[in-house]
Amino acid sequence: MAKELSSRSENYAQWYNDLVLKADLAENSAVRGCMVIKPYGYAIWEKIQGELDRMFKETGHSNAYFPLFIPKSFLSKEAAHVEGFAKECAVVTHYRLKNSADGKSVIVDPEAKLEEELIVRPTSETIIWSTYKNWIQSYRDLPILVNQWANVVRWEMRTRLFLRTAEFLWQEGHTAHATKEEALEETEKMLGVYAEFAENFMAMPVIKGIKSANERFAGALETYCIEALMQDGKALQAGTSHFLGQNFAKAFDVKFQTKEGGEDYVWASSWGVSTRLMGALIMSHSDDNGLVLPPKLAPFQVVIVPIYKGEEQLTQISIRVKELISKLKTLSISVKYDDSDTRKPGWKFAEYELKGVPVRLAIGARDLENGTIEVARRDTLTKETVSIEGVETYIQTLLNDIQTTIYKKAFDYRASVTREVNSYEEFKIEIEKGGFLLCHWDGTTETEEKIKTDTKATIRCIPLDGDKTPGKCMVTGKPSAQRVIFARSY
Amino acid sequence: MAKELSSRSENYAQWYNDLVLKADLAENSAVRGCMVIKPYGYAIWEKIQGELDRMFKETGHSNAYFPLFIPKSFLSKEAAHVEGFAKECAVVTHYRLKNSADGKSVIVDPEAKLEEELIVRPTSETIIWSTYKNWIQSYRDLPILVNQWANVVRWEMRTRLFLRTAEFLWQEGHTAHATKEEALEETEKMLGVYAEFAENFMAMPVIKGIKSANERFAGALETYCIEALMQDGKALQAGTSHFLGQNFAKAFDVKFQTKEGGEDYVWASSWGVSTRLMGALIMSHSDDNGLVLPPKLAPFQVVIVPIYKGEEQLTQISIRVKELISKLKTLSISVKYDDSDTRKPGWKFAEYELKGVPVRLAIGARDLENGTIEVARRDTLTKETVSIEGVETYIQTLLNDIQTTIYKKAFDYRASVTREVNSYEEFKIEIEKGGFLLCHWDGTTETEEKIKTDTKATIRCIPLDGDKTPGKCMVTGKPSAQRVIFARSY
């Protein structure tokens, strides 16, 4: 099976698509641009959801649910929001079908036209702030720290599984605060949560930064982001956290009585990550043999394959395996025992390699005699035969090691393709090689646009950490406050 | 606050609506028929989801995700499905907005009309079976045991929070099997899961049964259901499980190679419960003071309110409370400590009563001296002062007792209004009093329709358990195989 994958060096885009399909993660559906997330892919998403949800709750947030539909007029209430936001949306105009004259199909009932069209939410700031108006009267009602797990639709013309789909799943946090400082603090706190999740769970190093005005979320005063680097040298924006100022409060007239008895508009943040993270996860670690999953997000961390001839051997092996499973479970290690008889061990080995299961155990009749078991790790593709006695703690250590190793590998790769570039001539050559380029920029949209037009590279972010030495813009020679990160991106 | 609720006897429907609003469970949104599920309501839904999801996984199911949109033509592929299913659907006809001529608003771009309209899923059989066609070739690919948590839209004209809304949240299981027996077994198994969940977690007694042909799901050969009885004597269908036969496999041409080398259409089931369960939960146990929640689904089972004068007393109390919280957590009891200084204890008492928190603890300076704490239970509204030493195990027992007590109360109520009725004259009188009426029926749709027209009562189900003695139809005198359950319903 694994042989059917394209190689990364040959055709990276094809390799990605092959992998998503063959590892049973997702596929295209009958509806243009909408994907089906298959059970194995969804199980990874559930792990992502579970960890993020826990982190949101630990930082004081609650979940809620707001309508799928947004009245069309809401979108134009916040000027920058409607101006900057893509207008490719799914529009509901009717609310009823009826039988066709021949009775063989259904048609849209022309009588059932909505007075005002409804937009399938591309993001929920407008419907949520129209709701918050009723929730907020006084400082006592603040802060509101709410998150929503939902589906959203943006009618993308060119779609790619997980990376860019018309419908996708995401979470969107929407918070309301009494002061600017508190809203800014929240915006930055959630960026920190995203970065911690990306690094500790996805094993994906990210750079925290601020978007240039050009790349800012429509309606935000400031957009914070985490940027990751894929194996092909292209950047991927993995999460954003927006400081919305009082823009949406003003658009929906959400005022509150302050502690001091005055009146003010409410301050806001919003922040989100989506099923796009699945694409980032896949591209961060996988190889030409298939998926490589970090143990902390693998639907099952260990798979056990019995090697046997006949029922009696299988019975003997299964007794030993079940003892081991119970020990692994005590250590909170998730495990699948694949004793199905419809497939041969070789097929199973290839299958679980393709699916990125971190550790594969194989046990046969000779292992029973010798008290051994074969342990194979997915990330390095190495294997060894060890004593089955105490192997559970060995596996526990191994899983931690895999988590650390793949993070380090991704980190080292990123470091190897991150470099400072000082002239625009050099930039044009270097950008073709991929990676993060640290360059001085004069802070203007014109220069940013020129670079984009010339080279297809964009400013991924103005990094929050690291070198803050001023310099001169590589294009115009004008002053630059600090180096920013350029890359081509997903 | 609680005083603002209408009483049940005065106006049951108003009481329900007041309660949903005032207990912060949900509210109507700016979009007709769509609700906002508020954080406290959503926290209950998350408990419901968590338990059901665990039960689905324990019975071998995996989650997946299918598109929000269904091509219009798909709906007419299964004849009975399109015929019987309500055609009140949200229809997407366009995919782009543009600025209006005056630049002040957005309009639908007439150029961006879809070739084929898309329907926002009212249920997903069609899109899922069009997908399963690609997943199933051989008996080795079966069974498929998939569930989806999703939002669905049915354009209801008269909506009520949770009970009937245009958009609602639900889960829909869709399974594929090699044999009729296996598909039927699955249909019944999931009905059992729903019944177990309703009784053990929601503390809501239900009757398992089969729907009459008239009330069957459009496209199913048989619809199983669980029926509950609300405090106003009206029935509520709490979950359905459909045996779909080979109808959808035939409509979408899903065949498989059998183990014996032949070819056959795949057998199917589908099953679902929705946020309607929230309505059932609220109406099963709550009283004129507010919500009464079963401990197993309460967002927090215990609330602790300190009664203090001044910071120093609060500090002393908080030390004692924090010890108790840590003991409660060891016993997996969820607890909220409300030491906020913006509200008085009396306000808090009323608030948590309204919100149905099963156990409320109050502790003041005198309690500290005496080593006591006040324990109030929500269901009976009784309270007592007990020693704080070992109170955690006392509370554990109390929570179990509340769970059992409210189930028993609902069970006894149902028993008190469930009776056999033998003549149609009697039926017309009895149906006005509410409750479940066990009657003989001749099995025809005509008779069922007549009864519905005359009395607004429907057959809730043909019960699976209980008395199976044959008799004569109360309306026509024709033979009846067993008594069926009639009621007016939500």
Kindly list the characteristics that best describe this protein:
homodimer; 490 residues; alpha+beta; eleven-stranded mixed β-sheet; 14 helices
The percentage of residues in β strands of chain A lies in 25-35%
- The helix/strand class of chain A is alpha+beta
Biggest sheet character of chain A: 11 strands, mixed
Name the pair of protein chains with the most residues at their interface, and give those residue counts.
Answer: A-B, 64 and 64 residues
β-strand number of chain A: 27
Q: Mean of residue pLDDT of chain A?
A: 96
Shape of chain A: globular
How would you name the oligomeric state of the polypeptide chains in this document? homodimer
Main-sheet strand order of chain A equals 3-9-10-16-13-12-11-24-27-23-22
Task: Note poorly predicted spans of chain A.
Answer: none
**Helix content range of the residues of chain A, please?**
25-40%
CA(first)-CA(last) distance of chain A: 28 Å
Give me the Rg of chain A, rounded: 26 Å
Task: Provide structural commentary.
With 490 residues, chain A is an alpha+beta fold. Helix content of chain A is 34%, strand content 28%. Chain A has 14 helices and 27 strands. In chain A, the strands form 7 sheets. Chain A has an 11-stranded mixed β-sheet, with helices on both faces. Chain A has a 5-stranded mixed β-sheet with strand order 18-17-19-20-21, with helices on both faces. In chain A, strand 20 and strand 21 form a beta hairpin. In chain A, helix 2 packs across helix 6. The radius of gyration of chain A is 26 Å and the shape is globular. The two termini of chain A are 28 Å apart. At the A-B interface, strand 2, helix 2, strand 3, strand 4 and helix 3 of A face strand 2, helix 2, strand 3, strand 4 and helix 3 of B. Strand 5 of chain A pairs antiparallel with strand 5 of chain B, so a sheet runs across the interface.
